[in-house]
Amino acid sequence: EVRLVQSGPEMRKPGESLRISCQGSGYSFSDYWIGWVRQKPGQGLEWMGLIYPSDSNSKYSPSFQGQVTMSADKSIFSVYLQWDSLKTSDTAIYFCAKPAGPTDGYYYGMDVWGQGTTVIVSS
Amino acid sequence: DIVMTQSPESLAVSLGERATINCKSSQSVLYSGSNKNYIAWYQQKPGQPPKLLIYWASTRESGVPDRFSGSGSGTDFTLTINNLQAEDVAVYYCQQYYSSSWLFGQGTKVEIK
Predict the structure, then answer these.
(1) Residue A87 pLDDT exceeds 90
(2) Please, are residues B38 and B96 in contact by the beta-carbon 8 Å criterion?
(3) SS3 helix, strand, coil % of chain B, rounded to 5?
(4) Of A17, A23, A96, B96, whose Cβ has the fewest other Cβ atoms within 10 Å?
(5) Cis peptide before B50 (omega within 30 of 0)
(6) For B22-73, how does the pLDDT look when each residue is reduced to its tens digit (9 = 90+)?
(7) Rounded to a whole number, what is the distance in Å from the CA of B100 to chain A's nearest CA?
(8) CA angle B23, B74, B22 (to 5 degrees)
(9) A119 close to A92: Cβ distance less than 8 angstroms
(10) Which residues of A touch B59 (CB under 8 A)?
(11) DSSP B83
């Protein structure tokens, strides 16, 4: 079974740093992109970017470029999302997800999702 | 970036009736090389991650009931839920995966009337 398991809920103060994780199993982890999606309380889904665990090649949404850092450690089948200085506006649930495919070289949406990591930033 | 605009924001439908959700992209997501529309639809229930329902605009994911269907091409797309069931109450999102940023629509909340 293909699974993505995320780290547990976090509470931090503004200005603090944080790294959350997403660990894959049941497939060749290094060979598939992983995406990150933000969902603020009561709001919709926001695309943050993609990372390729094999070489840590990353593609950021312009809205999140410079705000977060995606990284990977393929030796332990994990990808990470990191903040150097959190803001209260970073309060959200963060999902990792695996693109479906590729089939004939094409990816087509996100078919496997982690359970989400709740991040609360409050003074 | 290709921006996705969904309508309506919410709708209430009687059990057994049809729900129709629209999604418009700011530019075409039809890739001529494959003749495929790079659109996916998701269902999200409270407290759960999203679930992939439809990809390539009209292909149902394995295990998704056939009352869910997707249609459209170019810039205009529709998710239709026929014979609405109580378990279909959720928020539905479209997503384009044509450009490097796979942006989502803002979501449509489906409720029972």
Answers:
(1) yes
(2) yes
(3) 5, 50, 45
(4) A17
(5) no
(6) 999 999 999 998 899 999 999 999 999 999 999 999 999 999 999 999 999 9
(7) 7
(8) 15
(9) yes
(10) 108
(11) S
